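Translate structure to sequence.
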């Protein structure tokens, strides 16, 4: 039906600094796998409930799936993994139905913030996360010989929350634009004003347009299948109507002949065996006529069901879009309120002295990024990080070479 109907969705996940189509899976990534096939006879999409569900990429980089077995996922994009699963299922099941597989990231592998932070540990990754925001998740710099002043810590936390909320707002605005386009039957999703100059605006709109195209293709394919089934049923009904008319004519002729033979037998001009033979023919014609009439009635009933399925499909799509639009609009208003609150908190905190002070001549902290397969390197607080990254906040000890004491202002 769809040439792996959901697989287009896997390219829609936003990542920080990396286009979703370039994202490759790794251990601890959690994905949603959906498997099914299109039943052309019944005209419905049949999901494989035993296969559908969330799976985590194992430490060895594989996904363990029922029927499909071990699928290597590490280093592969979600779309490539979906193709491998479909290939494995088709080869094992030897099914004539085209298996359709979708793989979508539901949870990225975590990041790790270590060193001179208040609460070092593991933290969930979200697309668009910066180094500064990651440090904020870990509580900011730890108490010690290098300390953030209280107002600076408050400003940093408010700024981090503001950036996260602003990204969430942009996502929801993009989703709202896509839902409105579906509701109004537009051919393309327009870009909201707020996203025209936004840093991730282009990526967010590309994601929503891919979702829009995939959903439109799915609906069009489903309607096309129903249209084809309806045409086939119409043809069958026409053919059976012609056969019914022919059988009725044959029955009339047989009845007329039987009346003539009955008259001849009564007059002694024909044998009774001939009349019995004709009665058998009439009975056989009546049975065949009844069978044809029943088959035509069943076809007409199925035709009505197909038309009802088409109407239900369209109505369900319209209802789902309306419900999602209502939810997204509520989330947008809630996010705007929280953004105004964080902006007010940040403005209040920056009215007083801020930054960080170095005590006893200890140098400014250095932020090191450790990424799999690469050497550690220093990064700035506005740099974007990726799933699985390790951040270490390093503070020079007394006696080490350190930068001159500095007072930094928040961005």
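Result:
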């Amino acid at each position: 039906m769809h040439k792996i109907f959901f697989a287009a969705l896997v390219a829609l996940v936003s990542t920080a600094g990396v286009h979703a189509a370039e994202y490759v899976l790794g251990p601890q990534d959690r994905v949603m796998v959906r498997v099914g096939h299109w039943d052309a006879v019944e005209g419905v999409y049949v999901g494989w409930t035993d296969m559908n569900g969330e799976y985590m990429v194992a430490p060895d980089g594989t996904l363990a799936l029922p029927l499909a077995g071990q699928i290597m996922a590490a280093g592969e994009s979600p779309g490539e993994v979906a193709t491998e699963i479909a290939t494995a299922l088709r080869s094992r099941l030897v099914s004539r139905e085209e298996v359709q597989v979708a793989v979508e990231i539901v949870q990225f592998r975590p990041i790790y913030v270590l060193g001179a932070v208040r609460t070092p540990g593991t933290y969930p990754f979200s697309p668009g996360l910066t180094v500064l925001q990651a440090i904020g998740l870990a509580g900011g710099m730890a108490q010690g010989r290098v300390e953030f002043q209280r107002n600076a810590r408050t400003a940093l936390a408010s700024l981090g929350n503001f950036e996260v909320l602003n990204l969430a707002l942009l996502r929801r605005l993009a989703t709202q634009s896509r839902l409105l386009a579906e509701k109004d039957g537009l051919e393309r999703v327009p870009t909201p004003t707020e996203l025209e100059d936004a840093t991730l605006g282009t990526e967010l709109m590309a994601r929503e347009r891919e979702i829009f195209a995939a959903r439109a293709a799915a609906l069009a394919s489903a309607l096309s299948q129903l249209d084809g089934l309806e045409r086939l049923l119409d043809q069958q009904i026409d053919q059976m109507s012609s056969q019914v008319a022919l059988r009725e004519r044959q029955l009339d002729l047989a009845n007329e002949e039987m009346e003539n033979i009955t008259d001849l037998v009564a007059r002694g001009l024909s044998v009774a065996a001939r009349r019995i033979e004709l009665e058998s023919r009439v009975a056989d014609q009546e049975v065949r006529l009844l069978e044809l009439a029943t088959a035509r009635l069943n076809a007409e009933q199925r035709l009505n069901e197909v038309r009802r399925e088409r109407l239900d499909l369209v109505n369900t799509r319209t209802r789902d879009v309306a419900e999602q639009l209502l939810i997204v609009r509520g989330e947008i208003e809630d996010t705007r309120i929280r953004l105004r609150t964080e902006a007010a908190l940040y403005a209040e905190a920056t009215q007083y002295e801020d930054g960080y002070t170095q005590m006893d001549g200890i140098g400014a902290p250095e932020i090191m990024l450790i990424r799999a397969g690469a050497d550690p390197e220093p990064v700035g607080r506005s740099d974007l990080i990726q799933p699985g990254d390790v951040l270490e906040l390093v503070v020079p000890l007394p006696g080490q070479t350190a930068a001159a004491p500095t007072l930094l202002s928040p961005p």
